[in-house]
């Protein structure tokens, strides 16, 4: 019964995602002349896209280093090299599967081949997502403050500022008090029985891993690395602006990157098709571009982010078949041990 409910829930989420994708595409199509958009794509200066992809690669190198650093901060025995294939593989799976299933695989499947615990993997991914959200909101605020005179609606700028401040304080609060929360959950788990007690125990273990990663020195290092992560991503968005015939300041690239990336939080079809395009299209029109430039930018920025990361992750999975094989072997051994104990 539980599995059936979970399956129904996932199906409904998928349907909602596809509906949102369709709505976003319709909203864009109603505002553009397809011939003008294709003409803008044809006249795009492709050298800028190549430079942008190099910038994106620098950002993803920083992402992998950041993840390995967080794991080592939690005393997980792993190296940067061991993190490359699992990280890139999870990005590819996120790009082609719904509901960010790549993150689920990075938490539940890949740790077996890396020799780390699922608890450490989960804590690191949770911290990674919180840091990214905080950094993106901060980047949007910084971009708006460094690019006065843009057509970005003032309420949106104020909302981003409030969210950045409130969200940043809340996330930092969780990080700083995760150690105490871990002890609290652990003590509660000892006085609770059944499944609820197990949930409390797992939550305490996750918070303990988070506490190790969010000590002042490691947390500061992670924040510094995150600047390079999103600086590299912003470089791609800025280069595409230049290739599209626009002459923006780098701050505009940061604004567009933040808006487009935050849109991926909205449910959609695999690959963030729809919300990403509508966000990029809207950002360019708000910042002064015409609809042809906005349409070509939405297509090319998605292509620039999605295609290289998908290919890189697919190659990583192909070159590291142990990513899935080790998990299958471990699962089989556990099943065999269970059968022997029951026998």
Characterization of the model:
The structure is a single chain. The chain is mainly α. The protein is globular, with a radius of gyration of 22 Å. Residues 336-342 have low confidence and may be disordered. 83% of the residues lie in helices and 0% in strands. The chain has 14 helices and no strands.
Tell me the series of helices and strands, N- to C-terminal: HHHHHHHHHHHHHH
Q: Can you tell me the overall shape?
A: globular
State mean pLDDT (0 to 100 scale).
Answer: 87
Q: Structural class, judged by helices and strands?
A: mainly alpha
Roughly how much helix do the residues carry, as a percent range? over 70%
Count of distinct structural domains = 1
Strand content: under 5%
* Cα radius of gyration in angstroms: 22 Å
Number of helices: 14
The largest sheet is: none
- The tally of strands reads 0
Pick out the low-confidence regions: 336-342
The span between the termini is 27 Å
What's a quick, concise take on this entry?
With 343 residues, the protein is an all-alpha fold. The protein has 14 helices and no strands.
Topology readout:
Blueprint: H1 2-29, H2 34-42, H3 46-73, H4 80-96, H5 101-108, H6 111-114, H7 118-146, H8 154-191, H9 194-213, H10 216-243, H11 250-262, H12 275-286, H13 291-319, H14 322-342
Helix pairs in contact: 1-12, 2-13, 3-4, 3-10, 3-13, 4-5, 4-13, 5-7, 7-8, 7-9, 7-10, 7-11, 8-9, 10-11, 10-13, 11-12, 12-13
